[in-house]
């Protein structure tokens, strides 16, 4: 008899060829019963593991999936650029997905990435529960969110950044502070920026208020609405800590339009250190994250896991205060 093929195994086990190959490559969710059926058929037919080795070596796609909320957001645009560049230098291509912070869209993307056989997924979008990640069965790295003890994550030192930002405003004489940041129900580490803000204003006994974007935190029109609201309710606010440079840029615009002088009447500090901030006058004071180093590490952590190495779980990057013209 000829050497048995994967087709013979599929026929014998009463499943599709795809299912046999998924069992061989251990991809996707498979019941123990199904695996037992396929392995049983392989044993009966004396199906040789060299075929298994071949199908395994073929299964490396040299593609990494990246899921971000919006690539149009300058922070994620820059991050994606660095990830793509670093992956390319290592012989990998990138498959990019925008989740728009929509759960079902994010699940669709994960399914699509798995069926495209990507070698790993970098998650910069965080609407899903931990369970969804555990079903992925691929190397995963997350940005700004600690999911579990066995999924590595990357973030900047958010708490330290929040301390630096708030302390600067207070030291420069601000007495009515506002923080504008992401939605408190999103389970993300960047909320530590707000925590640090709270700690400093309470320690120093400074008047403060906090405004939060809705769950879809990357809607630029909403920033304008929040600032309008802030100036209506607290016209004498004299310091704003924005949890991104984009929000800080909208704050600068709102001050211009309402006749507030920056930094004389009101001081503004952002977070991220995106290169676009160079377009603004005065230049925005910011807490700079090392975006390029973070992007490179995300790729390295995927590649290490693809090679079968174990990696450290926590990667917190230092931040730097970069003083511009808005403080």
From TrEMBL:
Which SUPFAM superfamilies does the UniProt record give? Answer: lambda repressor-like DNA-binding domains (SSF47413), Periplasmic binding protein-like I (SSF53822)
Keywords noted in UniProt: DNA-binding, Repressor, Transcription, Transcription regulation
Q: Which residues are in the HTH lacI-type domain?
A: 4-58
Instruction: List the InterPro entries.
Output: HTH_LacI, LacI/GalR-like_sensor, Lambda_DNA-bd_dom_sf, Peripla_BP_I
Q: Which Gene3D superfamilies match?
A: 3.40.50.2300, lambda repressor-like DNA-binding domains (1.10.260.40)
By its UniProt entry, which SMART domains does this protein fall under?
HTH_LACI
Signal sequence region: none
> What molecular functions are annotated in GO for this chain?
DNA-binding transcription factor activity; transcription cis-regulatory region binding
Q: Which PANTHER family match?
A: LACI-RELATED TRANSCRIPTIONAL REPRESSOR (PTHR30146), RIBOSE OPERON REPRESSOR (PTHR30146:SF95)
Spell out the protein name for this chain. LacI family transcriptional regulator
């Amino acid at each position: 008899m000829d050497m048995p093929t994967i087709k013979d195994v599929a026929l014998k086990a009463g499943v599709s060829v795809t299912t046999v190959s998924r069992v061989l490559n251990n991809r996707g969710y498979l019941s123990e019963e199904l695996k037992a059926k396929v392995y049983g058929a392989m044993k009966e037919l004396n199906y040789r593991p060299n075929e298994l080795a071949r199908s395994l070596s073929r299964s490396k796609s040299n593609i990494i999936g990246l899921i971000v909320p919006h690539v149009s957001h300058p922070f994620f645009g820059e991050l994606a650029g660095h990830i793509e560049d670093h992956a390319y230098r290592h012989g990998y291509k990138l498959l990019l997905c925008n989740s728009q912070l929509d759960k079902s869209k994010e699940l669709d993307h994960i399914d699509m990435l798995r069926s495209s056989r990507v070698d790993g997924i970098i998650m910069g979008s965080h609407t899903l529960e931990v369970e969804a990640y555990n079903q992925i069965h691929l190397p995963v790295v997350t940005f700004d969110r600690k999911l579990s003890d066995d999924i590595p994550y990357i973030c900047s030192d958010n708490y330290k950044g929040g301390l630096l930002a708030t302390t600067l405003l207070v030291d420069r004489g601000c007495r009515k502070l506002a923080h504008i940041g992401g939605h408190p129900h999103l389970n993300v580490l960047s909320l530590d920026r707000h925590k640090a803000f709270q700690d400093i204003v309470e320690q120093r006994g400074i008047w403060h208020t906090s405004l939060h974007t809705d769950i879809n935190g990357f809607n630029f029109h909403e920033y304008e609405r929040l600032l309008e609201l802030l100036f209506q309710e607290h016209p004498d606010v004299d310091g704003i800590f924005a949890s991104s440079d984009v929000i800080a840029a909208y704050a600068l615009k709102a001050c211009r339009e309402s006749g507030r002088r920056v930094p004389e009447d009101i001081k503004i500090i952002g977070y991220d250190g995106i290169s676009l901030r160079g377009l603004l006058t005065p230049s925005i004071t910011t807490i700079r994250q090392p975006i390029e180093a973070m992007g490179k590490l995300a790729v390295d952590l995927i590649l290490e896991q693809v090679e079968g190495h174990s990696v450290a779980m926590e990667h917190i990057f230092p931040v730097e205060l970069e003083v511009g013209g808005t403080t």
